[in-house]
Amino acid sequence: MAENRLTAGVARVDITPPPGFRMQGSMRRIEGAEGAESQLLATALVIADDNVKIVILDCDLIGFDLPLVQSIRTAIGAKVGTSSGNVLVGCTHTHNGPCSARGILAGPHDVAARPGEIEALDDYLERLAEQLVDVASVADARRVSARVGAASDQARVAVNREEIEPEDGKVLIGRNPGGVSDRSVDVLRVDDLEGQPIAILVSYAAHPVVMGFNSYLYSQDYPGVVRRVVEAASRATCLFLTGAAGNQACWSFLQSDWGEQERMGGQIAGAALNAFYQIETRPHEEIRDRGKSLSDIALYHKRFHEGPTHRILKTAHGMARVKLQKLPSLDEAEGRVARERAVLEGMVDAEAATTERVPQELVVRWAQGVLDKVRAGDLEQSLEYPLVGFRIDDFVLLGMPGEPFVEIQLGVKECSRAKYTMFAGYANGVVAYVPVAQTVRQGGMSVSSALRTYNIPAAPVESAADDVISAFGDLLAELGL
Q1: CA 33 to CA 49: how far, in whole Å?
Q2: Which end of the chain is more exposed for a tag (fewer CB within 10 A), N or C?
Q3: What's residue 115's pLDDT?
Q4: Alpha-carbon span 408 to 149, nearest angstrom
Q5: Domain range annotation of the chain
C-alpha cells in the first residue's frame, strides 16, 4: 500500500488596485488613494494528503462580504479539487486597502459613491476573485512532499484598546494596558522532507491600523513588515493571519510615521523567527555520546531517520449563532429616523464638509434599516458566523469571520487539547464585532458606531462571546481535540 504523504505548495500574487479607490476602515477618508506605500499581496498555501486538501489564503484586504467570499471559496475548491469548506480566505484587515466588503464597512457600496466608482470597484473585485483562484491553483501545482511543525513566542505589541476616560467614564479607542490581550505569536512551519522551508504561517491578534486616517497610500500595514522580515531571514514564504483582534490595537496605532509600522511589525517578526527556528520538522532522536579532548565531553546530536510525514490531516466545520438585543418600538425607530434625517438636512443646508456629511448619511441609512425591520415585525435578530477548523497532528488552525474579541481566542485555546492552537479572525468574511459581556454593558465603539458601519440593527447580547466559544468547542470535539 502506498504511503499517504503530506504535500504542500505556496504561491503569491500582487492584488494592488489602481490609485483612486477609497480605502475602507475610516469614514474620515473620503478621497481616493493616491498611490501605494507597499504592494497589496495575496498568498496561497495548499496542504494535502491522499484524502484531504486544505487551502489557506492571506490577503492584504480589510475583509470580504459573505456572499463574495463564499463564491471565491467555491471557485477555488472547484479549481483545486476540494470542498469550499476546506478553503480559508484570510484577510489581514489592513485599513489601508480598497473596499472589498460590499454593503458593509462604510465603503462606496454604501454611501457617497462618485460617478463610476462602484462600477470600477466591481470590476476590480471580479478580477481579484480570478486572481485568488489562480494563485491557489499555482500553489496546488507546486506541492511537494512536506512536513510541518509548530511553536509559539511572545511579542509585547498588542494592547487592549478599550480605554476608559477617567473624567466621564466614556469608552475610547485607545490604550488599556491592564485589559486582556493575547501576545502569542503562533507559528506553523512547513518544510520539504530535507527540512528546507517552504512556508511559515504566522498569527497575531492586533488590529493592522498602525498607520492612521491621514495616510492616503495603499499599505500592508504591520503584517507586511512581518512577512518581509521573516522571509528575508528564513527563506520561507510567509503568510500572516490576524487573530481575534476586535478589541486589540498595536501599542502604536493611527500613526503618521511609517517608522512605527516598522517597529511594530519588526517585533512580531522577531518573535515569529524565534519560534520558527525552534522547530525541527525532520524525524529524529537525540543521541548522547562520550568524547574526550583534554576533558571528558558529553556530545549530543540529532540522528535523523525515515518516518511518516504526518498522522492526521482533518477538517471540521460549524456555525456560531449570535443573538442581537431586541429592536426598539415602532415609535422609537420612527423618531430616530426623523431626528437623524433632520441632522443630515441641516448639514446639507449649511453646506457642511463631506467628511461630516457622509458619516451622517451612513447613520440615516442604518436607522432606516432598523425601522424597516421593526415595521416588518422582525424584532428578534441574530447573526451567523461560519466556523472552520484544520487539524494537522498536534496543531489546529481555527477560523471565523467578523471581529471577535481576544477573549474568544483565549477561551478557544483553553478549550483546545491540541499542543498548538492558532486562531484566525477575519477568515471567510467580515460580519460584525463579537464583544464580551463587559463591553456590551459599558458601551464603546464595537456596540455603538460599529453598528452603523457594519449595518447591524442592534448590539449583541451579553452571552455572544461565550456562545462562540461553545460553538468552537463542538468543532474541536469533531476534530478529536
Answers
A1: 43
A2: N
A3: 79
A4: 24
A5: 7-279+386-478, 327-375
**Which long-range CB contacts under 8 A does 336-340 form with residues at least 24 apart?**
336/367, 336/370, 336/371, 337/364, 337/367, 337/368, 337/371, 340/364, 340/367
pLDDT (0 to 100) of residue 166? 87
Q: From CA 150, how far away is CA 275, in angstroms rounded?
A: 8
pLDDT tens profile 450-460 = 898 888 999 99
Residues 312 and 395: beta-carbon distance below 8 Å: no
Collect all residues with Cβ–Cβ distance below 8 Å to 208 and sequence separation of at least 6: 92, 93, 94, 95, 220, 221, 222, 223, 242, 250
Are 92 and 61 in contact, with CB atoms under 8 Å apart?
yes
As a whole number of angstroms, the distance between CA 366 and CA 103 comes to 11
Given a contact cutoff of 8 angstroms between Cβ atoms, the answer to whether 22 and 30 are in contact is yes
DSSP letter at 336? H
The rounded Cα 365 to chain-centroid distance in angstroms is 27
Distance in angstroms (rounded) separating the CA atoms of residues 344 and 364? 8
AA letter at 354? T
Q: Which residues contact 62 (CB under 8 A, 6 or more apart)?
A: 24, 25, 91, 93, 94, 95, 97, 99, 100, 101, 105, 430
Q: Which amino acid is at 226?
A: V
CA atoms within 13 A on the CB side of 4: 11
Coil/strand/helix, residue 386: strand
**Residues of the chain with confidence (pLDDT) below 50:** 1
Burial 152-163, CB ≥16 within 10 A → b, else e = bbebebbbbbbb
Residue 98 has what DSSP assignment?
A: B
